[in-house]
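Side project, low priority. Logging it here so it doesn't get lost.
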Amino acid sequence: MIFPYIPAVILMLVSGMVSFLLTIIAWRNRAIPVFKPFILLMAAETVWIFGYAMELMSTNLQTVLLLNDIEYPALLAVPVAWLFIVLYYTGREQYLTRRTIPLFFIIPALVCILVLTNPWHHLYYSGFHLMSTGGSAIWIYEHGPLFWISIAYCYILGLIALVLAAGRLFVSTELYRRQTTLLVLAACIPTFCNMAYVFRLSPFPEYDLTPVAFLAAGILLAVGLFRYQLFSAIPVAYSIVFSTMRDGVIVTSREFRVIDLNPAAEKITGISSQDAIGRTLSEVFPALSSVQAAFAPAGQERRVEIQVRQNNCQRFYDVFVTPMDCGRAGSAGYLCLFRDISERKVGELALADANKKIGLLSSITRHDLANKLLAVAIYHELAMELSTDPLQKDYLHQQELAIGSMREQIAFTREYQQVGAEAPAWQDVGAAVGRARKLVDFGKVSLTDGTVNREVYADPMLEKVFYNLFDNALKYGGAGLRSITATSQITGDDMIIVVEDDGAGITAEDKARLFERGFGKNTGLGLFLSKEILAITDIGIRETSEPGSGARFEITVPPGKYRFPEKK
């Protein structure tokens, strides 16, 4: 044992164990393609490290050369394996095929042959000499001309891998930037140590620090694997998604100059990435000039629908413009996402036009029917005045009831036509209760509203629901009715809005058919209409009181259809 080298040997043994453990971990994940070159890298480093440690413990030249011959295939495999890893990591694995992979090992194979045959030509190692230092000795290799060819090949592969990996630092998310940083550092530290040894720049020129440097590289790779899911979440996924997604994406700088855009965005704008990059967003896509101006004071997310003429037809896009905040003050840039909504928009316009025509037809028909019904009512009154036959008067009375029912039906169609006519929106429940209260004469009956600061996503006719509930309570609550209460509570994931009174209540027989169309003492349309209004946004309603204890209606609002806005 050469005692001055004991600390270095211990470090190498530790480094070798780290590389060996990483080899085992990589082998267990060999189903993932990127781990295959990683297995080669870790296994090669392990052989190199243990081989060089044994070199330091021997002074016999033949033993040292034998160990060097064993190490050399592993030594030459390291830069090749690093390049393969980076190609996988950056999404360029298409360059690694059964035909191309052997090409990377042609020069390493020739170098190994030259090292083995060096005693006959001395072109790789021109000589060896034993250097004594501090009572110890180490064999120094004199490099021949062919050595520099192999070193140049290894460094070129390392430089290519470094450039490809470093490029991910500027286009990835924070997680991938950290992954890439660890990967680059793990490659650079051993490379620089090896260059310092080869070019005699190290403070210990006779001593190759590369195997020791593998300890630091192994620690960095271990942190990457266990802390940042290195190779489990590869940034190439973002590149693939970016280039293949059907939605258009434009990435801009803080000054709204285009940094990148995907093929879908090129098709939308009609401008290639080569022509678009470097230009302002308003130049590339003039329809977004107003959005760009709106970002200046606030920097908030913006959403806008735009209309573009492409190939002699109109296209509609839903555009989201989002600031990309990297944790610093202000925005590092903006992400513009274009979603084609042309089919939906055309459908909406066609549906709106159809609804308009149906509404117009319904209004005209309802108006004509009302006029005809008015004439019938007038003739009915005249017939009632002239009739003296009791049987005939009874028939006329039945006719009068039918006319009244027809009027109520016409009135109902007028209201029902408005259900779903407008898009649902967030409705202030307290405001809807307040508007309904003004439409009903409460007299001496009190109304307590506990629905303040509650919003539900519902049809704009929400107030009609509360109007019907209040009107029914006042009509059928009886002489004992004193109060009506509207409250809300969270039950599980749902919000329950309760409207209850202390009136006569509802019989068990009536509960089963309460929300059926036509069931009731008058038109029987109020509660049916209320249920239809709420059902548009999946809100339910039911009656839950005990017979004789007042009416109690529960309106069940599902998750995502209610919220609690901040108090102003």
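Brief comment: The CA atoms of residues 436 and 467 lie 5 Å apart.
Revisit when time allows.
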